[in-house]
Amino acid sequence: MGFVSGAVEGHAALAAVGGQRAARFRAARTLSAVESLKDPETEPYRSKYSARALLQEVKQLLSAAEEGGEAVLAVRRAVLEYELGVNHTDTEELSAGEEHLQRCTQLLEPHRLSPDCVSLYIQAQNNLGILWSQRDRIETAQTYLESAEALYNQYMKEDGNPPLDPSEHFMAEEEKLTDQERSKRFEKAYTHTLYYLAQVYQHLDMIEKAAQYCHTTLKRQLEYCGYYPVEWARNAATLSQYYLSKECFMEARHCLAAASVIFSQAGQVPSAEDDETEPDQQDLPERKAEIARCWIKYCLNLLQSARKLLEDNIGELDPDRQLELKAQRKKEEDEKEKGRKKAVLFGTSDICDSVLAMEEKVSSVYPLDFQEAREIFLVGQNYVQEAKEFFQVDGYVTDHIEIVQDHSALFKVLAFFEEDYERRCKMHKRRIDMLEPIYTDLNPQYYLLIRRQLQCELADTYYEMMDLKVAIGNRLEKLDSHTVKKINSLAQFAIKYYELFLDSLRNPDKVFPEKLEEDVLRPAMVAKFHIARLYGKLITSDSKKQLENMQTSLEYYSFLVDYCEKYPDAVPAVETELELSKEMVNLLPASMERLRAKLSSLV
């Protein structure tokens, strides 16, 4: 009888120890995940340190005498090593964190493919990957994360049943998770593996692989309802820019449409990430504006790519090419559905409907005429207004100017599709009206590079307007004085801005550099070339003035020729301009001589 009562008391004592252990383990996790968010700035890790002390106590309470023996003990020790590893990493004690995480994997190594251990092992590998990333040892991080990926794939192939979640090793039987919840947590751990691998591949400049992993991560986050809407939307919008660089417009649009739809969930419902509230709710207006900027880039890139397809050798719209592409597009209409299926779609059916509705608002095929281009332009312009609401000039100077420059670029590419020269001129005038006030207000001391960009853009725009006015004038029987005045005025404004750009390259003693830096070589040479052409375009009835203009023109053409003779490595940057400059250096002196002779005969 005494032996039986002693055994019962022993079981009761073990159960009490087990209860203490489970309670402290739960308390440690609560301290780490919840209470630590409330820690004061003066003691940022107070709750983490308290959690660590509790985990150490749980470690002392472990006993092989319990049900399950050595195998269960090893897994529980591994869980605690994992928790301590994460704790030390969170408190920036990376060496100690690494030791605990390594001990965790060593304990689990023989059983890493068992349902009891696989989830914990993958999460330990994930955290070792993060730890080595923090040390800037990206290749080492890659090894751990790829190992976690391989283990997941092997487990799913060989077993596939929902494995135990690490927290369950300190739960009573009645508290254990359902298979559905286990599966959700396991898939979430693997999604984290893919997410970190995407970052690693990005760091290693394996851009295509990074994009592929990012896309898979985003897809899985929606599938398993494990995401913060704002963060998800931001990542999807960023991914769209990769697809833009590859001219995959259907995929880029899909990412942006999904980003806009998911972003609209922000703040409306708690995040599916363990029912936590998403951080950075106060940043919503900025994040919304960032997504708008990605939409602007989408519209701009689509228009610019279409322009490249349609322009002839002098940069004008090629009508034959336009007809050819329109005929080709009709044939491809039947393939549209196949194309849609090829695109990597996001989301569950309820999200998909909203995403598809969003996509319908803007095309993903190249616009082939003005009407189609205008529809894309208007979408881009709406997003310009949305982005400018947040990125205002007061406080966000650089961002604001970049958005205005994109707006200007939208007008520029739309003008390409416009056949009417007068209307085209008005579009360029809109660009001038938006860029000049910004340029005037910029302090040269702090915004030298941006001012240079604007100087070149303003000069190019005035130049384009002058060319259009010349083309309009050429259609007239006789140039009227108003058109002459307009052509000369536009040419002089273009010269002014090109000269301002060239002056910005001078040293404090106002001396122009003998050898140009690589980043300004082409802009400077093109500016010189355009000034030479502009002086040749000025219209005057005064022969002396005409001779002066020709002389100035010759000096600028000669600069290009002489510079390229002195520095032959500059030639590839300005081959076309150099060829024309050489031609003009040969022709102009003879023309000037004829004009001088004419002047002499009049005296």
Looking at this protein, list some descriptive labels:
single chain, 603 residues, mainly alpha, Serine Threonine Protein Phosphatase 5, Tetratricopeptide repeat, 22 helices
Determine and state the CATH class of the domain at 1-150 and 167-173.
Mainly Alpha
**Count of helical regions:** 22
Fraction of residues in β-strands: under 5%
One letter per element, helices H and strands E, the order comes to HHHHHHHHHHHHHHHHHHHHHH
What would the CATH topology of the domain at 1-150 and 167-173 be?
Answer: Serine Threonine Protein Phosphatase 5, Tetratricopeptide repeat
Describe the largest sheet. none
Judging by the overall fold, what is the CATH architecture of the domain at 1-150 and 167-173? Answer: Alpha Horseshoe
pLDDT below 50 for ≥5 consecutive residues: which ranges? Answer: 1-14
Structural class: mainly alpha
Helix content: over 70%
Q: Give the termini separation.
A: 142 Å
Radius of gyration: 34 Å
Question: Whole-number average pLDDT?
Answer: 89
Write up what this structure looks like:
The protein is mainly α and 603 residues long. It has a domain at 1-150 and 167-173: Tetratricopeptide repeat domain (Serine Threonine Protein Phosphatase 5, Tetratricopeptide repeat). Helices cover 73% and strands 0% of the residues. The chain has helices at 2-33, 46-61, 69-90, 94-108, 118-134, 138-158, 179-203, 207-223, 229-245, 249-263, 284-310, 319-332, 336-342, 349-359, 370-390, 397-417, 421-441, 448-474, 481-504, 518-537, 543-566, 575-602. Helix 7 (179-203) packs antiparallel against helix 8, helix 8 (207-223) runs antiparallel to helix 9 (229-245) and helix 11 packs parallel to helix 16 (397-417). The model is unreliable at 1-14 (pLDDT under 50).
